[in-house]
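Backbone geometry tokens:
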Amino acid sequence: MEKEYHILSLSGGKDSTALAFFMKENMPEIFEKLELVFFDTECDLSETYDYLNKIEMYLDKKIKYIKPEFSFEQLYQIYKFIPSIRYRWCTTGMKTNPFRKYMNKLITEYNAQKIHLYVGIRSDEPTRIEKYQKQNIETNNSVLKTHYPLAEHGLIKQDVFDILTNSGIGFPEYYEWRSRSGCYFCFFQKKIEWINLLERHPKLFEKALYFEKIGGKNFTWCQDMSLEELMKPEITEEIKNKYLQKNNKNIELRNNLIKLME
């Protein structure tokens, strides 16, 4: 009989969390032997770690925290520049490499003959599945098999909301001001989210600002603006106003659409 491992990679976000609750309810025989894993960069927001603690409590299952070999500060000393969409060495060094190392450990040290990886991608995200499948994961492909239960069962974004609401766990608190999970310095953040980070986690913003400054003028977290410029009151106010106008416009469009459908 093959020695199998079942692993769900948690990000601390809504989709992977909903997947864990979905599997407990609908795939209990797998959930019983499922290992919840969080690849901990040690750069996530405090709200993320609080939410992970809630997940453990609600699911009555411990989460395994796996840390990278090198911290962000150490990797920064190696690369000497800020990571970006084009050069995502932070993802490689703090997420991808620890994942590969852990998979290889299961294979070489624990004699895993089949590893089932469960990923929280929904059926309304077909391009994400294609992208994930194309990733070059350096492990034994005959051993690793990836599953997408949410997509396979036709679940969409609204279903994820329903699962988290009905389970009672709700959403991570960072969704009040941020659109995604991940490191405090994530370069995918919108400008308004950087401003929110400044106001809610000023010490983390200061750390990001420090790395940007020592990286030189050619390296900025935002594509077209330094954090120092972003902090200027007139710039901050302009970004906030643009965000409010766009948000109000979206609300108006949604309300008009609802009226048309009535």
Q: What stands out?
A: The beta strands are 4-10, 34-39, 63-66, 114-118, 144-147. The longest helix spans residues 233-261. Residues 18 and 163 are 6 Å apart (CA to CA).
